[in-house]
Each structure stands twice: as structure tokens, then as C-alpha cells.
Design brief:
The protein is of the alpha+beta class. Helix content is 43%, strand content 16%. The strands form three sheets. Strands 2-1-3-4 form a four-stranded antiparallel beta sheet. It has a two-stranded antiparallel sheet with strand order 5-8. A two-stranded antiparallel sheet has the order 6-7. Strand 6 and strand 7 form a beta hairpin. The longest helix has 49 residues.
Length: 194
């Protein structure tokens, strides 16, 4: 099912429940979906309960919710031509982004982890890849500190894998050169009898 939301006084959507997590929907966010006569608070829609499960007060961790400005919020929206909805009163809605990240997830390191896994050092690249895939998972669940930590850990393992892979490649090239020189000297000795 797809939902429309009101953020910063603007209608946004439609979004799935998973996408609503990204927009830090709170229990006080106005939501509408097909089959509803009027807009309602997210906390009053049973299908959205998973968004607020285990979160005190229903707010996403790390998010700052600013109350509507002006008079008491009536929460009433009217349908206009073209299926657009507008707020009946002149209240303005504001919702701040997560304080630490400005609304953007930390670097995931997925591409780098895949590349070092394929071309440098598979064991450490796989560890980096596992942590890299967890960054988006944590961020989408609202666990911003865990997402940041997973990003740092993924970056550390990707860099370790790259450095080890680079060292192995350099040692391999040196070994090939040494073997080439040794074989060349052996060939000359057998050819010229030195």
C-alpha cells in the first residue's frame, strides 16, 4: 500500500512503509492513502505501527521534531481538483532532519568492498562488504550511530584489504622480476659457459 505524507507544509508521496522510514515519519505526521476520507495522524493508522515499534514516543532516534507553528493544528485537509490535498488552516509544518547526518546516510563502501574483494584481498574484502551492506540497513531502521559505526568499520576493512592486496601485487611483481633475471643469467651461463 502507498501513502502520502505532509512534510514542511508540502504533500509528498506516494511511499511504501519502507520508504516512510527514510522520511522519518513521526506519530504526528499527517498521512493519507486510498480509501481514507481525510488525512490522519500516522499513529492512528494501524498499518504504520511498525514504524514506531520500540521507539519511545514514536519519534525516530536522532530526529528532532518541531511542533507546528501558529494556532492549534486542526489536521484537516480538503481534496481539490487533480487529487491534490491542501491544509485547511494556515499552520506550517516543520520537521528537522537527523541532527548528525543532515538527512543523508554515511558512506556505504559497497562498491569499494566489491572491488577489493575481487581484485585485492578476498578475506578482508568480504568482511568489509558485510559491514558495508549493514550501513543502509541500520540507517533505514533509524539506528544512525550504528550506521556510522558500520561505515567506519567497512572503510577500515576495505582499506586493509586494499593495502594487503597492493603489497601482494608488488611482491608478486618483484618475484617475477627476480625470477626473470635468474633465468636470464642461467640461460646465459648455459649458452656461453660462464
Amino acid at each position: 500500500m502507498k501513502y502520502y505524507i505532509i512534510q514542511n507544509g508540502q504533500q509528498m508521496g506516494p511511499y511504501t512503509i519502507e520508504q516512510l522510514r527514510i522520511y522519518h515519519v513521526t506519530p504526528e505526521t499527517d498521512v493519507w492513502t486510498e480509501g481514507m476520507a481525510n488525512w490522519a495522524k500516522a499513529k492512528d493508522i494501524p498499518a504504520l505501527a511498525p514504524l514506531f515499534a520500540g521507539v519511545a514516543g514514536g519519534a525516530m532516534p536522532g530526529a528532532t521534531v518541531v511542533q507546528p507553528q501558529g494556532a492549534a493544528n486542526s489536521g484537516q485537509y480538503q481534496q481539490t481538483a487533480g487529487n491534490q490535498y491542501q491544509q485547511a488552516s494556515n499552520n506550517q509544518y516543520q520537521q528537522a532532519q537527523p541532527s548528525s547526518y543532515g538527512g543523508y546516510p554515511p558512506k556505504t563502501w559497497v562498491v569499494e568492498a566489491i572491488l577489493v574483494t575481487l581484485f585485492c584481498c578476498m578475506p578482508f574484502g568480504v568482511v568489509g562488504l558485510v559491514h558495508a551492506t549493514m550501513v543502509s540497513l541500520y540507517y533505514n531502521r533509524g539506528e544512525f550511530e550504528a550506521a556510522e559505526q558500520a561505515s567506519k568499520t567497512a572503510g577500515k576493512w576495505v582499506k586493509i584489504a586494499f593495502i594487503i592486496g597492493l603489497i601482494v601485487i608488488i611482491l608478486y611483481v618483484v618475484l617475477i622480476l627476480v625470477m626473470g633475471v635468474s633465468l636470464n643469467n642461467a640461460y646465459r651461463r648455459s649458452l656461453y659457459g660462464y
